[in-house]
């Protein structure tokens, strides 16, 4: 599956003979190697669930979070190189701050996604910098409903109903497609997202992981935040229970 | 002028220079002739929100001292498709602000791919007035319709304040009709009632304020568009003349 760039992959300022920019494709590989992120746009809000893989028991739990806030109303979840994502978070916060300063109202998430995409794209044009190795998901609940945007390392941005990014993105996408997102309520969406993360988590390759859950929607008036403790506990037990069910089904067979 | 540091710039003193000159005969400062007076839109401006849009109105007099420079001015300046601003104060200052803000909103609406919110337009106006508060003499009202909040009226007076109000007045003529507003404005008036309220207000102000006069220009802004009505002098509602 991995193609050899054979000389045309040394810098982002070069095209290959068949019109590809290999550096950008390699950046996508960095995204695919990170823990899975699942985002669901439900009827009345958006749920983020992140599989934060822990490589050592010595790390303090809760360090290196992968879900952040950009202004009160926009949530950002990242997949890929965390250090790159940190810089993009700073850029996004600056954009939001500048917009509020210039125009007096909070930045619309579509506009923020476009600005972030322009910024990420700029790093795919030159030979002396490398593209960002992360996929950014932005979520907000605005006056015309919930909005979910994803920005790729190439600088392309799409609006999504549901998306999974990272190690298990293919499997997770299949699970997401089984859901009826337009009818799903946010409380159920949180449970479903947690369940998908537990289902696609690879016990063999990555032993320990921490689940991160956040939501933004009608339930919290459009202010993005991590889910409250009881909701988190409920979602986790729902996810674990459905895993056991699946195990039982396997046993019967 | 600060005697100990005479080279500092003082906006007040600078404006005083515009309006006065030293008379050799009387040996003190006297007002300058009207030809050299700065042009001001003496003005009465009115804006009111109703369910579904806004109705805005202004008089049509631009004066330079006692000389009426333009008796059919258009003080209702369009910023975007559905957002207008009403100008009072220095004609030059308010025109400059309106031009800059029109450009800013045009650029923003191209970036966002949708018409700008009224609140954003009001903020752009307010920021300019605040930034140059020592130099500008501009009291503006920004009013219009957008998809998110419907009809809105924002007041951006002299120092650089921004406040949304259901009804507001501005300009030198407004002082004579605050009582009329207090007595006659009620929330949730119909479009016709708001129109009559605005027209009567402007007429009353024109009758008493020397810097306001001419005709009344009114605009009705809602989701369907902008309707402009010019009520000429002899068609203004009758006020009892002593």
TrEMBL record, chain A:
Protein's cellular compartments: Cytoplasm; Nucleus
Keywords: Cytoplasm, Nucleus, Proteasome
First-listed, main subcellular location of the protein, grouped into a coarse class: cytoplasm
UniProt entry tagged with the keyword Ligase: no
InterPro entries noted in UniProt: Ntn_hydrolases_N, Proteasome_alpha, Proteasome_alpha-type, Proteasome_asu_N, Proteasome_sua/b
SUPFAM superfamilies for the chain: N-terminal nucleophile aminohydrolases (Ntn hydrolases)
Pfam family, any one: Proteasome_A_N
Job description of the protein: The proteasome is a multicatalytic proteinase complex which is characterized by its ability to cleave peptides with Arg, Phe, Tyr, Leu, and Glu adjacent to the leaving group at neutral or slightly basic pH. The proteasome has an ATP-dependent proteolytic activity.
Family: Belongs to the peptidase T1A family.
Name recorded for this polypeptide: Proteasome subunit alpha type
Automatic annotation (TrEMBL), chain B:
Cross-referenced Pfam families: Proteasome
SUPFAM superfamilies linked: N-terminal nucleophile aminohydrolases (Ntn hydrolases)
GO cellular component assignments: cytoplasm; nucleus; proteasome core complex, beta-subunit complex
Reaction catalysed by this enzyme: Cleavage of peptide bonds with very broad specificity
Function comment: Component of the proteasome, a multicatalytic proteinase complex which is characterized by its ability to cleave peptides with Arg, Phe, Tyr, Leu, and Glu adjacent to the leaving group at neutral or slightly basic pH. The proteasome has an ATP-dependent proteolytic activity.
Compartment(s): Cytoplasm; Nucleus
Protein name as it appears in the record: Proteasome subunit beta
Signal peptide interval: none
Active site: 43
Hydrolase recorded as keyword: yes
Major localization class: cytoplasm
GO molecular function list: threonine-type endopeptidase activity
Alphabetized PANTHER family for the sequence: ATP-DEPENDENT PROTEASE SUBUNIT HSLV (PTHR32194:SF0), METALLOPROTEASE TLDD (PTHR32194)
Keywords noted in UniProt: Cytoplasm, Hydrolase, Nucleus, Protease, Proteasome, Threonine protease, Zymogen
Record flagged with keyword Coiled coil: no
Source organism, top-level taxon: Eukaryota
Membership in a protein family: Belongs to the peptidase T1B family.
Quaternary structure, from the entry: Component of the proteasome complex.
GO biological process, one term: proteolysis involved in protein catabolic process
């Amino acid at each position: 599956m991995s193609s050899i760039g054979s000389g045309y992959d040394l810098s982002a300022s070069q095209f290959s003979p068949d019109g590809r920019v290999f550096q950008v494709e390699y950046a996508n590989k960095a995204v695919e190697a990170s823990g899975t992120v699942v985002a669901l746009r439900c009827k009345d809000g958006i749920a983020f669930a992140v599989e934060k893989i822990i490589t050592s028991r010595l790390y303090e739990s809760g360090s290196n979070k992968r879900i952040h806030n950009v202004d009160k109303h926009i949530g950002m979840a990242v997949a890929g190189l965390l250090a790159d994502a940190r810089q993009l978070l700073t850029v996004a916060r600056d954009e939001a701050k500048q917009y509020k300063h210039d125009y007096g109202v909070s930045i619309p998430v579509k506009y923020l996604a476009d600005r972030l995409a322009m910024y990420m794209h700029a790093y795919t044009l030159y030979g002396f910098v490398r593209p960002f190795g992360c996929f950014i998901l932005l979520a907000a609940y605005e006056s015309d409903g919930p909005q979910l945007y994803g920005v790729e390392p190439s600088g392309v941005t799409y609006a999504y109903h549901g998306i999974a990014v990272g190690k298990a993105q293919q499997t997770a996408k299949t699970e997401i497609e089984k859901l009826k997102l337009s009818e799903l309520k946010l409380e159920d969406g949180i449970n479903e997202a947690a369940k998908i993360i537990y289902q696609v988590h690879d016990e063999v390759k990555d032993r320990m992981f921490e689940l991160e859950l956040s939501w933004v929607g009608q339930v919290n008036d459009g202010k993005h935040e991590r889910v409250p403790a009881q909701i988190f506990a409920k979602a986790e037990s729902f996810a674990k229970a459905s895993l056991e069910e699946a195990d039982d089904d396997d046993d019967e067979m | 002028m600060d005697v100990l540091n005479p080279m500092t710039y003082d906006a007040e003193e600078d404006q005083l220079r515009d309006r006065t000159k030293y008379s050799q005969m009387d040996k003190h400062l006297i007002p300058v002739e009207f030809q050299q007076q700065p042009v001001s839109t003496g003005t009465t401006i009115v804006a009111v929100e109703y369910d579904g849009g806004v109705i805005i109105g202004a008089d049509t007099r631009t004066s330079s001292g006692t000389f009426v420079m333009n008796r059919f001015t258009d003080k209702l300046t369009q910023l975007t498709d559905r957002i207008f601003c009403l100008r009072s104060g220095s004609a030059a200052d308010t025109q400059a602000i309106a031009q800059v803000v029109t450009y800013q909103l045009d650029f923003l609406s191209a970036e966002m791919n949708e018409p700008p919110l009224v609140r954003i337009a009001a903020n752009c106006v307010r920021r300019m007035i605040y930034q140059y508060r020592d130099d500008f003499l501009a009291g503006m009202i920004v009013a219009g319709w957008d998809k998110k909040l419907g009809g809105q009226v924002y007041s951006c007076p002299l120092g650089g304040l921004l406040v949304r109000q259901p009804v507001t007045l501005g300009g030198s003529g407004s002082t004579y009709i605050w009582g009329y507003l207090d007595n006659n404005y009620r929330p949730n008036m119909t479009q016709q009632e708001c129109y009559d309220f605005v027209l009567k207000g402007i007429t009353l102000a024109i009758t008493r304020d020397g810097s306001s006069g001419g005709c009344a220009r009114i605009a009705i802004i809602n989701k369907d568009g902008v309707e402009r009505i010019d009520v000429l002098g002899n068609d203004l509602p009758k006020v009892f003349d002593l």
